[in-house]
Amino acid sequence: MAKGLNKVMLIGHLGKDPELKYTEKGTAYCNFSIATDESYKDENGNKVERTEWHNIITWRKLAEICQQYLKKGSKIYCEGKLQTDSYEKDGVKRYSTKIVMTDMAMLDSKGAGSTERVSDESVKPAAGTAGNDDDLPF
User: In this structure, which of 4, 8, 52, 136 has its CB flanked by the most CB atoms within 10 Å?
Assistant: First the structure.
Protein backbone atom coordinates (compact mmCIF):
# COMPACT_ATOMS: atom_id res chain seq x y z
CA MET A 1 0.00 0.00 0.00
CA ALA A 2 1.29 3.48 -0.90
CA LYS A 3 2.23 5.91 1.84
CA GLY A 4 0.38 9.18 2.30
CA LEU A 5 1.85 12.60 1.61
CA ASN A 6 1.87 15.44 4.12
CA LYS A 7 3.81 18.35 2.61
CA VAL A 8 3.39 22.11 2.90
CA MET A 9 5.25 24.81 0.96
CA LEU A 10 4.75 28.49 1.76
CA ILE A 11 6.29 31.81 0.85
CA GLY A 12 5.42 34.59 3.23
CA HIS A 13 6.51 37.15 5.79
CA LEU A 14 7.08 36.57 9.50
CA GLY A 15 4.41 38.13 11.69
CA LYS A 16 6.65 38.30 14.75
CA ASP A 17 10.22 37.64 15.80
CA PRO A 18 10.96 33.93 16.25
CA GLU A 19 10.85 32.68 19.85
CA LEU A 20 13.60 30.19 20.69
CA LYS A 21 12.96 27.86 23.62
CA TYR A 22 14.35 24.56 24.87
CA THR A 23 12.66 21.38 26.04
CA GLU A 24 13.51 19.91 29.45
CA LYS A 25 16.05 17.67 27.69
CA GLY A 26 17.71 20.67 26.02
CA THR A 27 16.34 20.34 22.49
CA ALA A 28 15.92 23.72 20.78
CA TYR A 29 12.62 24.66 19.18
CA CYS A 30 11.37 27.86 17.66
CA ASN A 31 7.86 29.25 17.14
CA PHE A 32 6.71 32.03 14.83
CA SER A 33 3.94 32.84 12.37
CA ILE A 34 3.99 33.45 8.62
CA ALA A 35 1.49 35.55 6.69
CA THR A 36 0.61 34.64 3.11
CA ASP A 37 -1.39 37.04 0.96
CA GLU A 38 -3.71 36.51 -1.95
CA SER A 39 -5.97 38.78 -3.94
CA TYR A 40 -8.86 38.10 -6.28
CA LYS A 41 -11.90 39.79 -7.72
CA ASP A 42 -15.30 39.06 -6.23
CA GLU A 43 -18.51 38.56 -8.22
CA ASN A 44 -18.92 42.37 -8.47
CA GLY A 45 -15.41 42.86 -9.86
CA ASN A 46 -14.06 44.38 -6.63
CA LYS A 47 -10.54 43.47 -5.62
CA VAL A 48 -10.46 41.43 -2.41
CA GLU A 49 -7.24 40.96 -0.46
CA ARG A 50 -6.90 38.19 2.08
CA THR A 51 -4.14 37.31 4.52
CA GLU A 52 -3.81 33.81 5.93
CA TRP A 53 -1.73 33.23 9.09
CA HIS A 54 0.21 30.01 9.63
CA ASN A 55 1.74 28.88 12.93
CA ILE A 56 5.23 27.45 12.45
CA ILE A 57 7.43 25.33 14.71
CA THR A 58 10.91 24.12 13.90
CA TRP A 59 13.44 22.09 15.85
CA ARG A 60 17.15 21.73 16.68
CA LYS A 61 19.71 23.55 14.54
CA LEU A 62 17.11 25.01 12.16
CA ALA A 63 15.35 26.55 15.17
CA GLU A 64 18.59 28.23 16.25
CA ILE A 65 19.22 29.49 12.70
CA CYS A 66 15.71 30.97 12.53
CA GLN A 67 16.14 32.78 15.83
CA GLN A 68 19.53 34.13 14.77
CA TYR A 69 18.73 35.33 11.23
CA LEU A 70 14.98 35.95 10.99
CA LYS A 71 12.93 38.81 12.36
CA LYS A 72 9.44 40.22 12.04
CA GLY A 73 8.83 41.02 8.36
CA SER A 74 11.46 38.61 6.98
CA LYS A 75 10.39 36.90 3.76
CA ILE A 76 11.02 33.17 3.68
CA TYR A 77 10.26 29.98 1.80
CA CYS A 78 9.04 27.39 4.30
CA GLU A 79 8.69 23.66 3.70
CA GLY A 80 7.36 21.13 6.15
CA LYS A 81 4.32 19.11 7.20
CA LEU A 82 0.99 19.76 8.91
CA GLN A 83 0.56 18.58 12.48
CA THR A 84 -2.64 18.79 14.50
CA ASP A 85 -2.60 18.64 18.29
CA SER A 86 -5.55 18.39 20.66
CA TYR A 87 -5.92 19.88 24.11
CA GLU A 88 -8.69 20.51 26.58
CA LYS A 89 -9.73 23.99 27.70
CA ASP A 90 -12.66 24.64 30.03
CA GLY A 91 -13.81 21.05 29.54
CA VAL A 92 -13.95 21.43 25.76
CA LYS A 93 -11.64 19.49 23.46
CA ARG A 94 -9.89 21.86 21.05
CA TYR A 95 -7.50 21.40 18.17
CA SER A 96 -4.62 23.45 16.84
CA THR A 97 -2.86 22.95 13.54
CA LYS A 98 0.69 24.06 12.88
CA ILE A 99 3.38 23.52 10.30
CA VAL A 100 6.47 21.62 11.39
CA MET A 101 9.10 23.32 9.24
CA THR A 102 11.91 21.10 7.98
CA ASP A 103 13.45 23.33 5.30
CA MET A 104 13.70 27.08 4.91
CA ALA A 105 15.20 29.62 2.52
CA MET A 106 15.61 33.29 3.36
CA LEU A 107 14.25 35.35 0.48
CA ASP A 108 15.10 38.87 1.62
CA SER A 109 17.68 40.54 -0.59
CA LYS A 110 20.87 41.71 1.09
CA GLY A 111 21.26 45.45 1.18
CA ALA A 112 17.66 46.14 0.19
CA GLY A 113 17.41 49.36 -1.75
CA SER A 114 20.95 49.09 -3.08
CA THR A 115 20.38 46.28 -5.54
CA GLU A 116 21.11 46.88 -9.18
CA ARG A 117 18.96 45.48 -11.92
CA VAL A 118 20.92 43.80 -14.71
CA SER A 119 19.41 42.99 -18.09
CA ASP A 120 20.87 41.74 -21.37
CA GLU A 121 21.05 45.32 -22.63
CA SER A 122 23.22 46.47 -19.74
CA VAL A 123 25.92 43.81 -20.31
CA LYS A 124 28.61 45.10 -22.69
CA PRO A 125 31.70 43.33 -24.06
CA ALA A 126 34.95 44.00 -22.23
CA ALA A 127 37.30 46.54 -23.81
CA GLY A 128 39.27 45.04 -26.67
CA THR A 129 37.03 42.02 -27.22
CA ALA A 130 34.58 43.81 -29.49
CA GLY A 131 32.04 41.12 -28.69
CA ASN A 132 34.17 38.26 -30.06
CA ASP A 133 32.92 35.09 -28.29
CA ASP A 134 36.02 33.12 -29.43
CA ASP A 135 38.08 34.73 -26.63
CA LEU A 136 35.75 33.56 -23.84
CA PRO A 137 37.15 30.78 -21.64
CA PHE A 138 33.86 28.85 -21.55
Answer: 8
Q: pLDDT per residue over 21-47, tens digit each?
A: 999 999 999 999 999 999 999 999 999
Regarding pTM above 0.85, the answer is: no
Given CATH 2.40.50.140, say whether it is the number of domain 1-38+48-108.
Answer: yes
Please give the Cα distance from 116 to 127 (Å, whole number): 22
Q: How far apart are CA 56 and CA 59, in angstroms?
A: 10
Q: What are the Cα distances from residue 28, in Å, to 25, 31, 96, 119, 136? A: 9, 10, 21, 44, 50
Radius of gyration, CA atoms only, the chain: 23
